[in-house]
Design a protein that fits this description.
single chain, mainly alpha
Length: 207
């Protein structure tokens, strides 16, 4: 047990609610802002002004949401460079395979891939091969295995909230707005939570 603790400490692997539920989630929101959200703004601006090059820029930025979120999560987990850069491929796979619930899949899978990558980092003389190989293979394998189910569950939960809000807009609007309001007062990212469950429409407005 002591050996395991010393190994985790040496690898800077901190298994805690703060590390994963606050640091990683908050960084994920920043990655989302720097890709999908800003890309949507630029794209909309280009459409309204009739500037095709802005539409293209926005499209490129939005397409990188998965890699941006994964890299941001790796940064929050203080991943070494080879792990951090390898997470770009992991984020792309998790977001793509997760569908509408891709952000939640990216959060879960990027955390696991980053920690595994940190565990093997600098343990061999061919670190430049081993670390990216392990990080990407673990991340993409988990994406193929888990991302569709995680994405479907997140989408189903988000759809349930949206349907309930449409049926009972007053009461559900209060519930959603209060819950997200509480999240805003806590050191967790309400934006990341809403993105993970794909809240739009009336529910998104309440949030």
């Amino acid at each position: 047990m002591d050996g395991c603790k010393s190994f985790l400490a040496r690898k800077n692997i901190v298994i805690s609610a703060k590390r994963y539920g606050i640091d990683a989630l908050g960084a994920m929101a920043q990655g989302l802002f720097c890709s999908l959200l800003i890309g949507t703004i630029i794209k909309t601006l280009g459409q309204q002004l009739g500037l095709p090059f802005l539409v293209d820029i926005g499209g490129y930025a939005s397409a990188m949401s998965g890699p941006a979120m994964a890299a941001a999560i790796g940064y929050a987990l203080q991943a070494p460079p080879l792990v951090l850069f390898s997470l770009i491929a992991v984020g792309s796979a998790a977001n793509g395979l997760g569908g509408a619930g891709g952000p939640l899949a990216v959060l879960v899978i990027a955390i696991l891939a980053a920690e595994v990558g940190k565990a093997v980092s600098k343990e061999t003389k061919v670190d430049i091969l081993v670390t990216p190989l392990v990080t990407i293979c673990v991340g993409v394998a988990l994406s193929a295995w888990w991302a569709p189910a995680i994405g479907a569950a997140a989408s189903a939960f988000g759809q349930l909230i949206k349907d309930a809000t449409v049926l009972q807009p007053f009461w559900m609007g209060i519930v959603v707005s209060v819950l997200v309001g509480v999240a805003l007062t806590l050191p967790i990212s309400s934006a990341a939570i809403c993105a993970a469950f794909n809240l739009t429409g009336l529910a998104g407005g309440a949030a």
